[in-house]
Amino acid sequence: MAKKKTSAPPKKAAVRKKKTTKTTTKAKATRAGLRPTPTAKKKAVGKSKPKAVAKKKSAAKSKAVASKRVVTRSPEREVISAGKTPRVITRGAAAVQTKSGFPFSAEQIPALANGAKATAFLRSYRKGAWNQFEKLPLPSTNDEAWRRTDIRQLKRSGLQMVEALPKATRDKLPSIPARLLKPLVGKGHGGQIVFGPGKTTVQLSREIAKQGVVFTDFATAATKHPELLKKVLGSVVKPGEGKFAAMAGALAGRGVLLYVPKGVQVDEPLHSLLWGPGAGLAYFSHILVWVEDGASVTYVHESASPTLKEQSMHAGIVELHVGARANLRFVELQSWGEHMWNFTHERARVKKDGNLDWIFGALGSHLTKNFSEINLEGEGSLGRMSGFYFTDGDQHLDHDTQQNHLAAHTTSDLLFKGALEEQSRSVWQGMIYVAPGAQRTDGYQANRNLVLSKQARADSIPGLEIQADDVRCTHGATVGKIDPDEYFYLLSRGIPPVEARRLIVKGFFDPIMERIPFEGVRQRFQQAIVQKMK
């Protein structure tokens, strides 16, 4: 049956041979969707005072406030990563805020690796991240990137790190369901890392290990591969990029290091799982993937937990490096329980003629704020991002994506599709940035949303920032409801109402499922649709 469009046709903007002009800071901010920052304060309006009285008061007041002089600064646009990539975020030079409400301390920074002291560089990295955590303010709705995501209801003072629990208590937490350990890609795992609340298990086939591939946890990497860990740690994502990035950089004891040597082809997929049961707990993770020139690998990472009543939190960092002519397929599934508050900073760097296929699946958490970014730094590099999400209840998912074309002849392709039930909400903010000199760029981004209830809400904000004059960039966004004609047609064929709605939703997701070549991932999402539409 041919499907009718459930929403208005996407709004598109194409740019071809657009001349580069000198643009003021105010104009750039407006084009990027930011509110221009005022350069001076408005004078207060009030009743005038006699000059004599004013002079006496000002003289007395000057002594009182001499030591309390306040200097105001206009927010500066942040530049992140080696490519001097402008982020579509403003972060003002605000006063230092150390009291964020989190109960963590510097004494809780992981200091051991397999029973031995961590190497000096790892201690230095974590200490530096902690200093950033103490200095950076907690995000608020006054920040452009967080304007649609309010985290004031997060009970920060009630959280504790899972490592602080007694071993006997950790052992009593729910165990990992067997279904999460089954392969989602292929018939088996070439290697698997499982992070539980009490222990970590690492497996890697001998054949893959003989090729020089490193696939292990942070604790093992710090003792057996310190030079390699030092090379890749913090090279793509800096802890100072945000409060939660700094928190994860300082406190993440659970981490994955995947290194594929030059020219090595890993045929069997690798898999890691972060299992985070328990209430009132804080989990931290750090994923490092480094694929050398001409190498190839498929890697699946999943975060999951049961749903509980009391809040828990996860903060994580993901760093991806794809070398020249290398190929990385990275599947990332988020299946947190609906009590989890999830914050991640993720970035990929793709070199000359490299290829990245990045797949996101978001089904869980109470609130998610995710920053995902691709830097296409080499000529001929390709980055594709495919995302799907399904929310219900009072879930809130916020995805902030950035496609940065920093070299000529680069291509990016992004498609995110989501469905929303009950009182849930989704936010997608996307930006395609084309740097000066990045000619013959081809960038595409689209976000489609299907709203299944009157109380649900989807915000979709695409954007373009182009500083080259020979490019092709297109974007679009739609928000729609189930077509009543389609629904009536299915009912007239004797299909029950619930099943009719499911069929329409499955048809809506077909385009994104066609971009995912992994049957296990598709089946997991189909199961989620059935569960959320009971």
Search tags:
11-stranded mixed sheet; alpha/beta; 534 residues; disordered N terminus; 34% strand; 10-stranded mixed sheet; 11 helices
Short synopsis of the structure:
The protein has about 525 residues and is of the alpha/beta class. It has helices at about 25-30, 50-65, 120-135, 165-170, 205-210, 220-225, 225-230, 245-250, 485-490, 495-515, 520-530, and strands at about 75-80, 85-90, 110-115, 115, 160, 190-195, 200-205, 215, 255-260, 270-275, 280-290, 295-305, 310-320, 325-335, 340-350, 355-360, 365-375, 380-390, 395-405, 410-420, 425-435, 440-450, 455-460, 465, 470-480.
Describe the protein.
By secondary structure, the protein is α/β, with parallel strands linked by helices. It has one domain. Helices cover 21% and strands 34% of the residues. The protein is built from eleven helices and 25 strands. The strands form four sheets. Strands 5, 8, 9, 11, 13, 15, 17, 19, 21, 23 and 24 form an eleven-stranded mixed sheet that branches. Strand 3 and strand 4 form a beta hairpin. It starts with 24 loop residues before the first helix and ends with a helix. The N terminus is likely disordered.
Task: Please give the number of β-strands.
Answer: 25
- Rg estimate, integer Å: 25 Å
Overall mean pLDDT: 84
Which ranges are low-confidence, i.e. pLDDT below 50, for 5 or more consecutive residues? 1-98
Number of domains: 1
Number of helices: 11
Per the principal axes of the C-alpha atoms, what is the gross shape?
globular
| Estimated structural class | alpha/beta
Strand percentage lies at 25-35%
Indicate the percent of residues in helices: 10-25%
> Sheet bearing the most strands, described?
11 strands, mixed
Tell me the distance between the termini. 24 Å
